Amino acid sequence: MPVPDLFFTMMKEEWRMHSTVFGSRGFALFPVVVATFAFLGSLTLPVFSDVLPHQTAALLALVLFLLMGVMVGSFGLMGREFMNRRFGQASLIAYASRSLPVSERRIFAAFFAKDTVYYILLYVLPFAAGFTAATPFVSLDPALGLLAFVSLTLAFLMGLSAVCLLSTLYARSVRLLIGAAAVLAVSGIAVSHSGIPVFPPYAFLLDPAPRPLVLALLLILVPAAASVLLVTVDYPDRTKRFRNSLDPIAGRLRRLGSAHFIAKDALDLLRSEGGAGKVIFSFLLPLGLIWVCLRILIRFIPGIDPLVVFAVLLGVISATIYNWLTEFDSFSAYAFLPVEVAGVIDAKLKSYALANLLPLAVLVLAAATSAGGAGSFLPALATFLSVSAYTLAVTVYLTGLYPNVMLYHAGVFLRYVLATSPALLLLIFASLLNPAYGFLSLLLVLPAALLIARGRTRWRAWEMPGY
Amino acid sequence: MRQMIEAVDLTKDYGSVTAVNRVSFSVAEGELFGLLGPNGSGKTTMIRMLTGQVRPTAGSARVMGLDVADDPIAVRRLVGIIPEQETPPSFLTAEEYLHFVARIRNLDAVEERCDHWFDLLEFGEKRNVLCKDLSRGTRQKLMFAQAFLHRPRLALIDEPLINLDPIVQRTVKDFLEDYVQDGGTVFLSTHILEIAAEICDRIGVIHNGRLLSCGRTEDLAGSGRSLERFFLDLVRGDAGA
Ligand SMILES: Nc1ncnc2c1ncn2[C@@H]1O[C@H](COP(=O)(O)OP(=O)(O)OP(=O)(O)O)[C@@H](O)[C@H]1O
Ligand SMILES: [Mg+2]
């Protein structure tokens, strides 16, 4: 089957999967929600134009989409597993590679294309549309909307294909990755001194000329092509064997209770393809980028300490760890055993708490490289812990054990954004005034506890209707 | 004799579809009961109701003396279940999965229990292989082992012999016969007539959610007709009615 046919079949399959899960309206409205937020956000542009000049706002939006590309781009890593990870074995077409005469590389290429188009349709296009709709009200040229769409797409794709290449290299060998990263860094520095724009999507937005466009396309297409060529999708010849690690891990965690569930979560994460690489590419790398961006940003707005702001973002991003932890099982895997839904959720929460040691280490590292001292570290610590707990609680309440699927439901996503963003924006603004306001975040702990308690009963009723 | 399963007017509606329609029957201790029916007749729904995974729309069921609707977890603690679709978790090895289930069930002497099943179903050489890399038949063996690990007195098993080769099928049939000899009780569902005829003491025939017939295997098939004739006549007669 040629790649385009595969691509359209996959698009249809993806649509059907989503729309059977929520009914097609819930899924179709998702972009509408994104557009609405972009619209409302754009309306506030004149209000903030003193602190946040339009150019800086545009740069922020581009960086946001670059980051999104980075976060979703690590699929080169998962190789074959990437094809069936999102819906388990539900993806029939990816599985068809076993029975149809279709090469796995083609399937990978089609998947890459499908996911790219899906993200663009779900996020980039509605975001640009929302912005465009707002332009008349903030006295901007509506034609800017088109320009915004093109440059946001470029920024998203740049992050996506760069990380896809890096993760593909990582899957082959770590040395290859380090080599490539070094070459990239050196050429990046060389380029930045030569006057060629380092971030062509931004250059293109400021000046829609062919040169930044061509440059951006090169930066997208070359890594993307290279990763499709280099991706390893073959099954290893020998099935791997593993000594029993469940009991040793569970033994060590015995004190926590439900240790065997936590041990299983850990093994799922470590043994699924990509393993530690997933953590690096969809977690540590974006966090590093955010930290760098924040450090650059404070040069524009001197006198503020970015650590608490970073802690807020860190907390929100940490909540995505819960998505990883719920990726490999559903309650049906335990439904025939004497296990309560709430028990499974509790075990996931414990795994989550343990996994949060990683972002905690990131926070400590960030604090060590910033000048704030304890005056900003303690509020940042409180902020990180409460934001992480609160965002997690919202996720658990709204999506139960299925955040990977449910967050694409428009209604659910809307409630997620409404439940999290006001508190978080408030925290960010307050902490810009004074880092000590970060302690206000502790107020989130109570609603977090309530939401989790409610979520446990809510999802029990959902998994075992009538009981 | 003690009744291990007693269903009274058990009914399950999925919207406009009535998957199981006012079914009453009982299974006594030491019986090997087979629920026989064509695809979509309601066998899986029945097992899911009896094990507290789906709440009946109407009617009630007592399993080992407990009302399933009252305490589904207690029922699942007692019985062994092989679900229809579920496969063991991808990233645990076969051995780890059995240990995982053993911990959920708070069992002791886990090693011995596992070894017993690895030996009986002859898949010990796969104990360190991830479940996702096991063949379907081996996964089914693992699901068998999981269901009987705590030596339950009642097992409810959904299409248990599917995907197993004739040699393992023989082993499993022998095991089930020994198990009921020793006082265990089995409720199994199948659409394979030969299996029902060969190992079941009693058979219930279900079609479109209704229990058409229920009786001793030799009585159903005995009256000069094969079980196949009996089954086909019954189901076709019902479809025509
Ligand atoms: N979760 C569900 N939602 C809606 N309808 C269902 C659901 N589960 C089963 N049904 C319907 O109930 C009826 C009985 O299904 P069930 O799975 O119990 O049959 P079965 O006898 O196990 O079939 P098979 O031999 O194919 O396994 C079917 O019409 C099926 O479509
Ligand atoms: Mg069935």
UniProtKB/TrEMBL annotation, chain B:
Alphabetized SUPFAM superfamilies for the sequence: P-loop containing nucleoside triphosphate hydrolases
Residue ranges occupied by any ABC transporter domain in the UniProt entry: 5-233
InterPro entries in UniProt: AAA+_ATPase (IPR003593), ABC_transporter-like_ATP-bd (IPR003439), ABC_Transporter_VariousFunc (IPR051782), P-loop_NTPase (IPR027417)
Keyword Protein biosynthesis: no
Pfam families: ABC_tran
Protein name as catalogued: ABC-2 type transport system ATP-binding protein
GO MF, one annotated term: ATP hydrolysis activity
Keywords of this entry: ATP-binding, Nucleotide-binding, Transport
Entry annotated with the keyword Zinc: no
Native organism taxonomy: Archaea, Methanobacteriati, Methanobacteriota, Stenosarchaea group, Methanomicrobia
